[in-house]
Structure formats: structure tokens, C-alpha cells
Amino acid sequence: RPDLRNANTYLGWGSNVLVNWHIMGKELMAFKERGGKVIIVDPRQTPTSLKLADIHLWLRPGTDGALALGLCNIVIERGWLDREYVERYVSGFEAFRDYAARFTPEETERITGVPREQLYRAAELYATNGPACAYSPSAAVTHHVNGYNNFRAVIALQALCGNIDRKGGMLPIH
User: Fold this and answer.
1) What DSSP string runs through the chain?
2) Dihedral in degrees, nearest 10, Cα atoms 23, 26, 27, 32
3) Residue 141 has pLDDT above 60, yes or no
4) If we measure between CA atoms, which residue out of 135, 116, 113, 112 comes closest to residue 38?
5) 170 close to 163: Cβ distance less than 8 angstroms
6) How far from 83 is each of 13, 78, 93, 100, CA to CA, in Å?
7) Mean per-residue pLDDT for 4-23?
8) What's the CA angle centered on 108, arms 71 and 122, to 5 degrees?
9) Which site from 36, 85, 131, 174 is most exposed, i.e. has the minimal number of CB atoms within 10 Å?
10) Burial of 35 (0-12, 13-18, 19+ CB in 10 A)
11) Are 133 and 172 in contact (CB under 8 A)?
């Protein structure tokens, strides 16, 4: 679950929490009021993207995996990844890095429709204004032909930035 109380940045991937999860919506409004930064990834304009997003990555439906991999590529290329976390917990980083490199900002923009300037802004905010937490209902990302891998790419972004199982990031459910 996202640790909004201790985070600086929130990444909402395909989630309209002001409408479909009122408890989280209230927490996200309080987070924003105290100065938290909000990135929303959604192919729709929603109450959450309109009222709370500092950055709304308005992607083409079904291109979530390409967007996540493009953000990962930028994080890696700019050196914004949490190297200590990656070395300690990530298996197969070199192969992943090589695969993500295919998703240049130009190629990611072509696939997703998200302008590369927004890609850079979102990657930098998520990677450098941490700790950062995220929320993605699995249905929004996985209900596509390549849905499982889309979701894996979103989780990979969180891991690259060291935002899994840490205060202000993603906490395990106990």
C-alpha cells in the first residue's frame, strides 16, 4: 500500500481515487494540501487528474507498459536510480536496462502520445522527489493483451527508485 503520510511524491497509475476509493481520495487530498506532488497516469481526464495532478500523463489506452519502460529508461540514463537498492534487491538489472533502452523518449512519445517533455518532468519528479509511493489498481493496467508485463514495468519503475518496502514508498501489507 502507498505510504502517503511519509511520501513526497505520489504516482497514481490508472486510478481515479476521488471517485472509486473515497478513503484513499481523502488521504490524497490531505497529501496534496501539505505540499505533496501528484503524478496521474490515465488515458482519461478524471476528477483526480483535474483536481490533484501536478503532472497528468495522458497516454493512449493500453500503452502503460511502454510508458513505464520509457520512464525507467530516463531514470537509468539520467542516473536517478537508487543504485544501492538495485544492487541489493534487483536481479537481472543489466538485461532490463538494455531492454528499457529501446524505449527512448522519442519512441515512448510515439507509442503513448505523451510528450517527451512530460516524460522527463514525471521521471525526474518521481525519481528525485522521494520518497515516492504509487497506487495502481491491477485491473486498469492488466486488462490488455500485454497486461501482466505492463504491470511488471510499473513495479520495475518503483524498484529502480528504491520505493518498495520503505517508509514513504510502498509498504507491504501485513
Assistant:
1) -B-GGG-SEEEEES--HHHH-HHHHHHHHHHHHTT-EEEEE-SS--HHHHHH-SEEE-PPTT-HHHHHHHHHHHHHHTT-S-HHHHHHH-SSHHHHHHHHTTS-HHHHHHHH---HHHHHHHHHHHHHS-SEEEE--HHHHHSSTTHHHHHHHHHHHHHHTT-BSSTTSBPPP-
2) 160
3) yes
4) 135
5) yes
6) 24, 12, 11, 16
7) 90
8) 35
9) 174
10) exposed
11) no
Measure the CA–CA gap between 69 and 19, rounded to whole angstroms: 28
Entry pTM: 0.93
Q: How many of the other CB atoms lie within 10 Å of CB of 102?
A: 12
Mean pLDDT of 132-140: 79
